[in-house]
Write a structure and sequence with these properties.
This protein is an alpha+beta fold. It has four helices and ten strands. The strands form three sheets. Strands 2-3-7-6 form a four-stranded antiparallel sheet, with no helix packed on it. Strands 1-10-9 form a three-stranded antiparallel sheet, with no helix packed on it. The chain is elongated and about 90 Å long.
Length: 250
Amino acid sequence: MKYTFISLFSFLIFNFIVHAQEVQNVDFTFRNNSFIITYDLVDCKNNYMYDVKLMMEGKESGSYYPINTTGDLTNLLCGNGKKITWSPLAEGKQIKEDVRFIVSISKSNKILVNGPNNAIKSIFIPGLGGLSVQKTKLPLLITTGFIFSGIQAFRYNSITNINYANYLNASTQNDMNYFYNTAKDARNKTYIYLGIAASLWATDIIYTIIRGNKNKYNQLRQNQHTGSNWKLNVYTDYYSVNIGLKKQIK
């Protein structure tokens, strides 16, 4: 759901509040020795994912960036009701003053091409399809593993051919046994590395299809908006008091 806020009255107590354009409705509660910070990520660009950072600001202590945080922090799509949890005691901090929390965009990543059709790219270059649906280390590892396995399979196949040729030309039984066993061992290793390469290839195709379908679903959900209504909204902290109307688009 997307929210649009029209301010009717704003009284600034200490200073102006600067909100990142994509982050709205930041609020928090304190429960079980932890802060639960909620926020909405709205008005995002198409085909982008976001990382956010959390800052606490106190009247006396100033700004502080929490470390031991969990929740909706990285690889985020647009949406409401996102949540970050922070336990100050885990960092040796005791909060004894009025504070507020600011959530802001720290990084944006463009989803190159979202859909599962990118699996076609993986057929030609393993790992390329995975990189197209999400920038992670996994596709790069798959590509590296595939290349390494392919090189090893080629090397052991060459060893197999050389030793088998030597086996056919050997003049003693000992030499025949040695070259034959060496060729057999190299052939088995060739099959092993070919199997690894094929498994990595299939893994990338499956990963691309699954991740691509997930991206496609998220984008469809993000773009589905039906109906709207207005409601009175009152928000206050020690910095400001805001009274206005909030438009909710489902």
